[in-house]
Amino acid sequence: MNAPHNPNTYRSGPDENGRFGMFGGRFVAETLMPLILELEQAYEAAKIDPVYHAETAYGLRHYVGRPSPLYYAERLTEHFRDKAAASGLSGGAKIYLKREELNHTGSHKVNNVLGQILLARRMGKKRIIAETGAGQHGVATATLCARYGLECIVYMGAVDVARQAPNVFRMQMLGATVIPVESGTKTLKDAMNEALRDWVTNVATTFYCIGTVAGPHPYPAMVRDFQSIIGRETREQMQELEGRLPDSLIACIGGGSNAMGLFHPFLDDPSVEIYGVEAAGHGIPSGLHAASLTGGAPGVLHGNRTYLLMDADGQIKDAHSISAGLDYPGIGPEHSWLHDVGRAKYISATDEEALEAFQLISKLEGIIPALESAHALARVAELAPKKPQDHLMVVNLSGRGDKDIPQVAEILAAR
Ligand SMILES: Cc1ncc(COP(=O)(O)O)c(C=O)c1O
């Protein structure tokens, strides 16, 4: 049993075994163990190396285009204030969007990939493998491999290859080999299984660039550290704009990296409410969803213990979401822990609600969001009108929706 958690230090995890409470850890094949330890050592050394820090900072600024703006969404704010007034309420939070969709390659994924690719170079690895769902992590990995002249192989479920065709073409243009995965549900979980298989087979030459805060230790903590630039910038920008901390943070959750990146720098600020939004697909009661915390139980998958969608025999169940990037039957272990200790609240939005938010934000703000980010925006519709007007709400706009336009067009045309 783990020691009781000290609520003053939510940011201190994981422990030396990579555990956040009972979650996380390192459940991998023996063949991978030396590699995981080598990676951990390399990351620990890089963390205290000013040269590595300078290289990453330069890349984030001049290649990725950071800092990303923290933008006051005035029309969206007014829209929800009008809704509140129509129900006799005087509320309506002031809504800010953290514009991760403006990063080079169109999402937050590149923050993490830059950190990992620079680490791979330090380790002398020239062959990079990655898994991808929506294709955004694959595109970011293909991009940085092109930039640094590395071989890039991306595993992608065959279903996702079909629904995210623009990103498949982008990866190929960037020189990557995209391997469609035909096993299981042909989505993100299966792509990750295949990438892990490749890694076991090619341990000596290959660096596995994981796209979210999942996988064996040190990945969940390492990816979180790379993504925490989102929350650190938000803190500074909100201080500049409003002279104080935000009151609430909202982000969508696939594996949980954009959310963890926004949340982590605020975990020890008790005044800041934290909401993660999982994909409720056709609705939680239907069983067709990807909400591992809302509708799952603890188990082991992809090298870590976390909440998973499982049947009564412990077999992993198929996840469902309209959004390829959220279509994963697990969640990063740190989220599982934050859920159990009660520091963050996990809610969900259905396919239909996300589609509605996708259209609303496009029309009101002139920003077409990724379907993934639209899940977070969908819950704002419910939360914002209930908050007072001086409540500062930050929504992570994790990616842009260009990749989703063919899919959304098809859905809307069929109505
Ligand atoms: C734009 C965007 N947002 C969110 C996600 C979900 O991933 P995560 O939960 O790791 O941020 C993805 C995954 O592909 C994505 O492309």
From TrEMBL:
Involved pathway(s): Amino-acid biosynthesis; L-tryptophan biosynthesis; L-tryptophan from chorismate: step 5/5
Reaction(s) catalysed by this chain's protein: (1S,2R)-1-C-(indol-3-yl)glycerol 3-phosphate + L-serine = D-glyceraldehyde 3-phosphate + L-tryptophan + H2O
EC number: 4.2.1.20
The keyword Translocase is annotated on this UniProt entry: no
Name of the top EC class for this enzyme: lyase
InterPro entries according to UniProt: Trp_synth_b_CS, Trp_synth_beta, Trp_synth_beta/beta-like, TrpB-like_PALP, TrpB-like_PALP_sf
One Gene Ontology cellular component: cytoplasm
Superkingdom per UniProt: Bacteria
Residue ranges of domain Tryptophan synthase beta chain-like PALP in the record: 90-399
Named cofactor requirement(s): pyridoxal 5'-phosphate
Keywords from the UniProt entry: Amino-acid biosynthesis, Aromatic amino acid biosynthesis, Lyase, Pyridoxal phosphate, Tryptophan biosynthesis
Residues the record lists as N6-(pyridoxal phosphate)lysine modifications: 109
GO molecular function: tryptophan synthase activity
Any Pfam family matching the protein: PALP
Free-text function comment from the UniProt entry: The beta subunit is responsible for the synthesis of L-tryptophan from indole and L-serine.
Family of the protein in this entry: Belongs to the TrpB family.
Subunit and partners: Tetramer of two alpha and two beta chains.
Classification via PANTHER family: TRYPTOPHAN SYNTHASE (PTHR48077:SF3), TRYPTOPHAN SYNTHASE-RELATED (PTHR48077)
Protein name as catalogued: Tryptophan synthase beta chain
Organism: Bosea vaviloviae
The encoding gene: trpB
